[in-house]
Amino acid sequence: MDARAAVSTAVAAALDAAGAAEVDPAIELSARPEFGDWSSPAALRAAKVLRKAPMAIAEELRDRLAGSTDMVAEWTVSPPGYVNARLADARWVPTVLDAAAAMDPSVPLATGLGVGQRTLVEHTATNPNKAAHVGHLRNACIGDSVARILRRTGCEVEVQNYIDDTGVQVADVVIGMRELGIAQNDSEPFDHYCSRVYVEVKRRIEADAELKARRDALLHEIEAGESETATYVKDLAT
Hints:
Layout: H1 3-18, E1 28-29, E2 38-40, H2 42-50, H3 54-65, E3 72-78, E4 82-87, H4 89-101, E5 118-122, H5 134-152, E6 156-160, H6 168-179, H7 190-205, H8 209-224, H9 228-237
């Protein structure tokens, strides 16, 4: 049983015990995360049947629901008469993962989302002006996950990895190396060297309008792609 079904079944049983079996539990996602994961307006709907204030009914339902399902870690109430369920992560997450693992990955999910649509996902896109770091790996993982999810919903997905080897960041590194003479330290890895140059040039440019103008001119030269500098930048980025 999935989490929503477990919550619905538990609330229906509590309503039955309270004398309002005909009231629909109407389980819905909580409007605010502090209330929990799922909420039910059943107490509001049961007010006419039980002839009680909705909050009093909600509190009664909460007490009846305690321990009703191991899928829920905590039951709470909120005005004007909602019963809220905060799920037990250690219980519902394995259920979701087991259900996902049992699915046939070759068959698109019947969500109705994305079928027949073409989607472009750009991810990773590591600028070659400094050392790669864990943030780049994070972006790659998120991007790859998004692409896989979209494919499972029937989308035609195209993944692109944009290498910005003609951008401002690369121009900063070139300025630092060729015009400011920032040298590579002994035994310093080249990507770490590029990182250090980039940070230093960025710091100097913020206080030096002339240096910024030189960097901007270099950037236009790189983008034109027909000079010795443009070739140098390609080699540097590679």
